[in-house]
Design goal:
TIM Barrel, alpha/beta, elongated, eight-stranded mixed beta sheet, 732 residues, 2 domains
Length: 732
């Protein structure tokens, strides 16, 4: 131990006299700090976190590869090591002292960088400094071990440079230290999983951005520790005291041994893609942490209030301030500017009734249809159109939960998904008929995912409890007997009441699908939290509406589905010609649907739809009655049904409401704050208010005067991130 401590003191003295050591430990990282800091405008939101992550990684790489690798060779060439050879010292304490010296030299640079980030760019002190420093120390030791291996296998300073520089440059440019991994094509992102510095970057980013601990990054930590031990062992075995001692070129292959842990980790990550997903999530968080000032806009708050001229400051993904009238200069706020003169800012629109598993149209060749990619495209299409939240009201549960996680984590960018399902119905009830169109081998699994058919109160409660453990957002029940020629078994109201009671006991809202006025009566008696569809065949009674009002039940009329059914029955495909529909829908789906509306083989289907007792006029009249009674309205489209294609669904639904006589501002409130309350997410979004998520739609013109302005989308912000609508739909 005495020898180790003495060597550490000597090593520190020698290091502090070495200009290259000082350069790569302090000046080199600081150059990057100032260049990145000012060029990236690090004062704006989360960008300083990105700068610190990059600079810290660069510093550790320089400390290890150049600080240890170059300096050890220089000590051998200047005969410093020869002097130790005559003393009773083995290579182990000498190399261990080099590692400790490297850590001691590096940490002051990290501390200085953090202080500068705080003072110059306003970065808050990380709450988990202990994890940051511990991870940095582990990484520093690991990369110094790599440097020591390089020093052991090369025969001169010139050789060390030839070996170090390619390694250093590869780690610098392929780890995310200079360019985010999300910038790379998919194949290159997989290659980065074999680069040791990638795990350094991901670990630092997770600690600084997400507040993770060292344990959250245990895989990277283990790989770094193994590398440190392997590196120290190899460096000891290959250690040379004098420059005259030469190694064969084949000995240089020992460098690969230190990289072995990352080869194994890279193979695992290429299979699991966990860290690729983490890299995307971290990049998304960086985008959502930027600071924006939306200036000179008309603001529809979402609760009925309109501000004719205001500016909105977005910071850290949330609305930090709303300035009525003149706003401060963006430079003083350290914000990027979005000029919104002549535009209207609204809360992101919400569709509370969609079916992601159905496209709303037809494709010519279903052998080429990828259902998973189709759903991901639908999620992106909604966001492209400014519909920032949707509720799945009947889809395969497990698949939909995976989609919710994929987009909810930020790994993929799309609308926010809430899951209301599966459908509680009767055996042979509405919802079960869709299984008839599937091969028998697939039918059972589909039914298990899509519907629940309890036969008793006890079974109903157990099925609800099972869904609660899966963390669904709501429960849906079906009350409909169909029509003559296409009838269904109707669910027992008492069993559905048990479903409703259990859902409410577990804190979940209940949506009930209804087909006629009697179904509405029964749904209100449960009571449901929202009535889906209401009635398109007969008038809802005044007494039922009074009871709805008393119980605070929301009404979702889904007029879009009636229009879609009746249009398809007539072979009218004008709904496909809408601009936003054309922008977000794949050509093969548009063409296939256009053809299906006119093909003779679909004549039977179209005739059946014509006979279905469904009237847009009746639906509109019921909507007006409900609104005049003061019942809260919400917007749902039933997307996935005929000609109701995913994307600009809320815009069309609102247009139908206005045509039916609903005031525009009432419809807009239904699509924003009312819908957010139904989703029980109104504390996060639904209104443009300070402290809420910056999930916003910006349109050209004034939708309060012209409802069609809702389709003139200028920009969309999702949790503070300005959505790149041009590239959004290119992902799938």
């Amino acid at each position: 131990m005495k020898a180790f401590l003495a060597l550490t003191r000597i090593d520190l003295k020698l290091a502090l006299r070495n200009r290259s050591v000082l350069f790569f430990n302090y000046f080199f990282p600081l150059i990057f700090f100032f260049v990145f800091g000012y060029s990236m405008h690090a004062e704006q939101g989360s960008r300083i976190i990105q700068v610190i992550t990059m600079v810290t990684a660069i510093g550790i790489l320089g400390n290890g590869l150049f600080g240890a690798g170059m300096r050890a060779v220089q000590d051998r060439e200047t005969d410093v090591l020869r002097r130790y050879k005559v003393t009773p010292i083995t290579p182990v304490p000498l190399l261990a002292a080099s590692m400790v010296t490297g850590v001691i030299l590096y940490l002051p640079g990290l501390i200085v960088t953090l202080i500068l980030a705080n003072r110059l760019f306003g970065m808050a002190v990380p709450p988990n400094l202990g994890s940051l420093f511990l991870f940095a120390i582990i990484a520093c030791v690991a990369f110094r071990s790599m440097g020591l291996i390089i020093a052991s296998v090369v025969n001169s300073s010139q050789e060390s440079l030839i070996l170090i520089q390619p390694l250093y440059m590869a780690m610098l440019f392929l780890s995310g230290a200079t360019f985010p991994l999300s910038f790379f094509p998919d194949w290159l992102q997989i290659v980065t999983q074999f680069i040791p510095a990638t795990y350094l970057m991901l670990g630092l980013a997770g600690i600084l951005q997400h507040g993770e601990s060292v344990m959250h990054n245990w895989q990277a930590v283990i790989a770094l520790l193994v590398t440190a031990l392997v590196g120290l062992f190899i460096a000891t075995k290959l250690f040379r005291w004098e420059k005259e001692e030469k190694l064969r070129n084949s000995a240089k292959l020992w460098v690969l041994a230190a990289l072995a842990p990352f080869l194994l980790l890279g193979l695992y990550q290429s299979w699991s893609r966990q860290d690729l997903a983490k890299a995307k999530i971290l990049a998304r968080d960086m985008e959502r942490g930027k600071t924006w000032l939306i200036q000179n806009a008309r603001v529809y708050v979402g609760n009925g209030k309109v501000i004719e001229s205001a500016s909105i400051l977005i910071k850290g993904g949330k609305i930090a301030e709303i300035y009525e009238g003149t706003a401060p200069d963006p430079k003083t706020l350290k914000a990027d500017l979005f000029e919104a003169a002549g535009k209207t800012v609204l809360p992101g629109l919400i569709d509370v009734h969609v079916h992601l598993g159905a496209t709303g149209g037809f494709v010519e060749d279903y052998t080429k249809f990828d259902a998973k990619k189709a759903i991901e495209r639908e999620m992106q299409s909604y966001l492209f159109c400014g519909v920032t939240s949707v509720r799945s009201a009947g889809d395969a549960v497990d698949d939909t939960l995976k989609v919710r996680k994929l987009f909810g984590s930020g790994e993929k960018l799309g609308t926010e998904l809430f899951l209301c399902g599966p459908l509680f119905t009767a055996e042979g009830g509405h919802g079960t008929e869709y299984g008839k169109f599937l091969p028998e081998a697939m039918r059972a699994s589909f039914i298990a995912q899509f519907v629940r058919t309890p036969k008793s109160d006890e079974e109903a409660r157990k099925q609800v409890d099972a869904l609660v453990t899966q963390k669904v957002d709501a429960i849906k029940g079906v009350l409909e007997a169909g029509v003559p020629g296409n009838s269904f078994n109707r669910m027992d109201v008492n069993i559905l009441r048990a479903v409703t009671e259990e859902a409410h006991a577990k804190g979940l809202p209940v949506a009930v699908h209804t087909g006629n006025a009697q179904d509405v009566v029964d749904a209100v008696s449960l009571p449901a939290d929202s009535i889906e569809h209401g009635s398109f065949v007969d008038e809802i009674s005044d007494a039922t509406i009074v009871e709805m009002k008393a119980k605070g039940i929301a009404y979702d009329p889904t007029l879009s589905v009636v229009e879609g059914f009746t249009s398809f029955a007539k072979g009218d495909t004008s709904l496909l010609k809408r601009s936003l529909v054309q922008q977000v829908t794949r050509k093969e789906l548009l063409d296939g649907t256009e053809q299906a509306a006119k093909k003779p083989e679909f004549d039977g289907l179209r005739e059946g739809l014509k006979r279905w007792p469904m009237s847009l006029e009746v639906g509109g009249k019921n909507l007006l009655k409900v609104w005049r009674a003061g019942i809260p309205l919400v917007t749902g489209s039933d997307a996935g049904n005929f000609l109701v294609l995913h994307g600009p669904t809320v815009q069309r639904e609102i247009e139908l409401w206005v045509a039916a006589g609903i005031p525009i501002d009432v419809a807009l409130q239904a699509a924003t704050s009312n819908a957010a309350k139904l989703l029980r997410a109104d504390s996060r979004f639904g209104t443009v208010e300070k402290g809420k998520e910056a999930t916003l739609l910006i349109v050209d013109g004034n939708p309060l005067q012209d409802v069609h302005a809702l389709s003139s989308v200028s920009a969309v912000f999702m949790k503070g991130e300005r959505v790149n609508r041009t590239s959004l739909l290119q992902e799938n």
